[in-house]
Amino acid sequence: MSTADWIVLAVSLCAIIAYGLYKSSATKNLDGYFLSNRTMPWYLVLLSIMGTQASAVTFLSAPGQAYTDGMRFVQYYFGLPLAMIILCISFVPIFHRLKVYTAYEFLESRFDLKTRTLTSLLFLLQRGVSTGISIYAPAIILSSLLGWNIYLTNAFMGGLLIIYTVSGGAKAVAYTQQLQMIIIFSGMLMAGYMVVHLLPPGVGFVDALRVGGKMGKLNVITTGVSGNGFNWNDRYNIWSGLIGGFFLALSYFGTDQSQVGRYLTAKSLSESRIGLLMNGLVKVPMQFFILLIGVLVFTFYQFHPAPFFFNQVQVNKMANTPYRDSMQLMQLKYDLLTKKKSVAVAKWVSATRAQQGEEKAEANLKLLNRQTEEIRSDFTRLISKSKVGGDSNDTNYIFLRFVIDYLPKGLVGLLIAVIFLAAWGSIAASLNSLASSTVVDIHLKFVRRDASPEADYSISKWYTFAWGVFSIVIAMFATNMGSLIEAVNVLGSLFYGVILGVFLVAFYVKQVKGNAVFISAVMVEAAIVLLFWKSAIGFLWLNAIGALGVVAVAMLLQLLTGKKNGNPDGLPQ
Amino acid sequence: MPPGDKPPIFSSWNTWYILVLLFLVVLITGFCLFTNYFS
Fold it and tell me: In Å, how far are A98, A266, A470, A506, A552 from A511, measured between CA atoms?
């Protein structure tokens, strides 16, 4: 990185920390620290929700996803707008009416203390570990591409934000997320502009889209139906997006404290709802824009030689294995094909303009792209075979490698700042939610019930700090365990379904009481862990099995026992 | 939904449902046209 890049990076990060500290004047009690005294307008709630959901990997991985698989990933968010309406009608008014700090508090008034404690512990376990991985995931990409020390990168990625998160609580988190989103979108807009600007003379934005479209990268809508009928293994299509995306959004925004804590800071029920509803409307266009940048990067690399493998660290590791010769042979073939590809794409553009020989030029370009992709896939398999470890998923490295190799001085620094800020936005919200659940659901219930507001405020700060340190420690351990990112996705799926199931029973199955839902949650959680351990079922299915399992078993238990304990609405009586 | 509870901006949640469904229809149609135009 150049001096200009370091200056831009340092100024951006310092500006966020300073702004966070400036906005840290929270009232010294739980309401001020965790809910910002419920004073936030809807647009800050919206930016906070978006900043919490969009982690660093969103901005690193999504363009790479479009580069390799096209834009169909956007369909994953199609269920979000409808889920926002359901949340606004059912979940949000009850949280506001009860004036809760955490989503799990509601479960005590609806069921009992043990059900509340169980769900909050499941949340703390899952969110605590995944926050560590939120630090590690962008840190490993930055350290690989820039040659930074991974431990120092982890420490900076997770350490600096602790300053303002501990100091200012939810208020500092929300205000910094506002500034972070402005910087992030400015950086991404400039990157999008630069990709088009760097295309060869005479090749414009529309030409770039045509190349992407012809190579199958603008596949925004896919049905998942092939010659053999509907493909259930196809991850992204309109049906999985509308149905699967709906349940995922309902679970994430309705039961995950990192999101619930954001919209509870709103100054009224109406402001919470507008923030959530607007999120439903802007999320899909935002994701479309990020993916479009990936398609433009793909077109750029049709005209310019693309790296054989974007993560150079893996290439270097492979050079020290017995597979070195195989790799070099692959690389030679690949370099030859990329040279042919840049000639072929120029021919295709000319043929399109002349409206002559277009089909032949297109077929040639498609063939060359297929061949280069096959070599990349072969190399990924060779990495797995060689057991060199490290991150073999090259998708996450594509966009940042392009930024480092081709963007001008200063802008590289800004886009690295974008990665840091995106990470900070979601990590800060996670730390705040981990602390709020620890203090409200555990500490004040089991450790010290009668502390003063100042003491509660003080212990909240300590818990935020402790969760920050815990997350960095997890990130440091993750450094030696390459597959932990997937492990955390699995961990989330092990718990998310059961938590959603408990909330679905709370809202929609009024006759089920506390004991039934608690025993059901414990039984289904054990069954989920056993199912995962014993069988080869895809982990994404565990969400649905967990949620529906809790509802079904709880209803059955209630029917068998017939006992009544609990409050059917969870509202004050 | 608690009694007397009103949605933001519009007077009924049905309007929000219609708006969001229309939004999705327009979005998906627009995406289909976009995909077809460039492929």
Answer: 21, 32, 40, 9, 13
B35–A220 C-beta distance less than 8 A: yes
pLDDT per residue as tens digits for the range A452-498: 888 888 899 999 999 999 999 988 887 655 444 556 666 777 888 89
Tell me if A347 sits within 8 A of A356, measured CB to CB: no
pLDDT at A19 over 80: yes
Contact B8 A274 (CB under 8 A): yes
Which band of pLDDT confidence, cut at 50, 70 and 90, is reported for residue A518? very high
Nearest CB among A213, A273, A284 relative to B38 is that of A213
**Shortest Cα–Cα distance, B35 to chain A (Å):** 6
Q: What is the ipTM of this complex?
A: 0.93
**Binary contact (B8, A220; C-beta < 8 A):** no
Would you say how long chain A is, in residues? 573
Nearest to A85 among B9, B17, B27 (CB): B17
CB pairs under 8 A between A and B: 62
Question: What b/e sequence results for A250-289 when a residue is b if at least 16 CB atoms lie within 10 Å of its CB, and e otherwise?
Answer: bbbbbbbbbbbbbbbbbbebbbbbbbbbbbbbebbebbbe
Other beta carbons within 10 Å of A407? 20
Structure token pair of residue A103: 């989503």
Q: Please write the tens of the pLDDT for every residue from A90-132.
A: 889 999 988 899 999 999 988 889 999 999 999 999 899 889 9
Q: Would you call A141 an interface residue with chain B, using a CB distance cutoff of 8 Å?
A: no
Is the minimum CB–CB distance between B26 and chain A shorter than 8 Å? no
Contact B16 A277 (CB under 8 A): yes
Read off the pLDDT of residues A42-71 as tens digits, 9 standing for 90 and up.
999 999 999 998 888 788 888 888 998 899
Contact A38, A267 (CB under 8 A): yes
Contacts of B16 in chain A (CB under 8 A): 85, 88, 277
The pair of structure tokens assigned to A24 is 């840290």
